[in-house]
Amino acid sequence: MTQPDLIIRLARLARTLRERGMRVTINDELDGLSALSLVDATDRGEVRLALRTALKIQRRDWEAFDEVFGAFWAGEDAAPIAREPTEKRSPEGGAPLRKLFQGPDESLSERKAVAGAADGKVPGYSPEVLLRRKPFDECGAGDLAAMEKLLNRLVPKLAARQSRRLVPTRGRGAVDLRRSFRRAVQTNGEFLTLARRARALEEPRLVVICDTSGSMESHTRFLLAFVLALKRVARRTEIFAFNTALTRLTPWLTAGKIGPTLERLAAGVPDWSGGTRIGESLAEFVSGYPGLLANAKTTVVIFSDGLDRGDTALLSAAMRAIQSRARKVIWLNPLLGDPRYRPAARGMEAALPYVDHLASAHNLESLEKLVPLLAA
């Protein structure tokens, strides 16, 4: 069975589970796809347990899951909604993965989706979309290189924020009567061309503070890759890393590939993937770099899971100072990618009152949603 076929079959299973009231997300489906590559696909028990774990089925739903899974394994449609005719299984049983989802005939739209997935024409099943939705903690070195290409297309959108200030333009825009009349004087009163004005594009001022502690290790490289790509279009971006102490990364950054730059940062930042003291680090930022928050045009972005081992009172004071001087404060937490997550960690609770936007940062798709916030 090809990967597009497997994706469709797994999506059908997930849809049926959702119809039975189980919460199965797209990320859970990706987990299930990865799990199938790690087990013996001919062993019904192994496959059942792997999918039950990867799809995060709760204990109270195990019996219903086993019923749905058993029907799919046997080649029947267990969905409570309209049944479709089942296809006959071959005596040989086919390939192992084909047996797993030897389900009903696909609808015309699903067959088109499979065909489109094979040639990358259907966004929902293209490798690019799957990469955008793949959780960072499941990504490898090859994924980082592919993401770099996507980021180079994504981040230029950041430079599209228009200010209220009107500036002369050679393209489309509102007619500037005063300048148009001045031009006409030079051509004996003839209006050969009209002068126009358009809203200027404002380059955002960003301060990005990234948690490089051990609990963030599986996400840090991808978050920093996003920030490095961001800096190419938002040149007034300052980048810091923190764990048990704060380190300013901006002077270390040079043009070039993201991968080698990240390796250099990991080697140079003290206590990389070690402990974390968010309060002490943010307090150091407030006291040591007051000039970066001297105006109300700066947006502060903090990447962290909020798992703090330090003084939460110090964290609250630092966040209060940052919010009072910055244009806005955005906190990106990779744990928000799990719908069951609640911001109950001590550090996260202390910071929340001073955060303007709390959002997820668990995959590239979630980071794409950050761009409008930065450009607004």
Helix content, binned percent: 40-55%
Reading the helices and strands in chain order gives HHHHHHHHEEHEEHEEHHEHEHEHH
Tell me the name of the CATH class of the largest domain: Alpha Beta
The CATH architecture of the largest domain would be 3-Layer(aba) Sandwich
Structural class from helices and strands? alpha/beta
Strand content: 5-15%
Q: What number is the mean pLDDT?
A: 75
Number of domains: 3
Strand order of the largest sheet: 6-5-4-7-8-9
What's the name of the CATH homologous superfamily of the largest domain?
von Willebrand factor, type A domain
Task: Kindly provide the radius of gyration, computed on alpha-carbon positions and rounded to a whole number of angstroms.
Answer: 26 Å
What brief labels describe this structure?
3 domains, 376 residues, 13% strand, 3-stranded antiparallel sheet, 9 strands, 6-stranded mixed sheet, single chain, Rossmann fold, alpha/beta
